[in-house]
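Morning F.,

Quick status update on the modeling queue. The single chain you submitted on Monday has been processed. Sequence for confirmation:
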Amino acid sequence: MLLYAVALVAITLLVMLYRRDRARLRTQRAQFFDRCLDLFQSYRVTQEGPTYPLLSGSYRSHDIRLEPIIDNMAWRKVPVLWLRVTVLKPNPYNAVMDLLVRPGGVEVYSPSSELDHHLPLPVGWPEQALLSTDNPQSIPPLELITPHMAVFADAYMKELVVTSRGVRLVRMIWQANRLNYALLREIKFEGTHLDPAVAKTLLDAAIDLADALSNAATVERAA
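Structure tokens below.
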């Protein structure tokens, strides 16, 4: 009976510690967008469990979404936190176009692996990248996109996705602590808050491209 009581107490303590750590992790991650909120005309932040929150709102009068994604799928690599920034502004180009920098074949957040057509990279686009689409005849004119490639001068940039619904950019925010992950398999990032300058740069770049595609299509229809 004594052993049974000791085991029961140990299990109870483990459950309490697990719940405490889970609640602490949720609270910490909930603060991710706190320093960026002044950027938005309006916003809504939602969070499920201990995951990072999702922000949807309005920036420069555009509908936007910011979604952090933990990527721990790559074998023997330190987990990474990506930020997916989406600007929802329709354009008439029906194809999905994806530019993926330094593809590793394990980008679960990317549509690249589902796109059958690979295209040559235009001059001025990032090297060591894969340009893919599901329909080469319906992608936006690449010369419209070329002036907006400056955002990829940032070595942390990973992806550009263009669809008829808008534009998405993906950038690495942090890598997990290598020692914690190697010893404990614990995904622990050094930072807690998204840098407002990073958020602004990504949002401005995505909006400028989305506007360029929409405006060019308007000019084409008028002509």
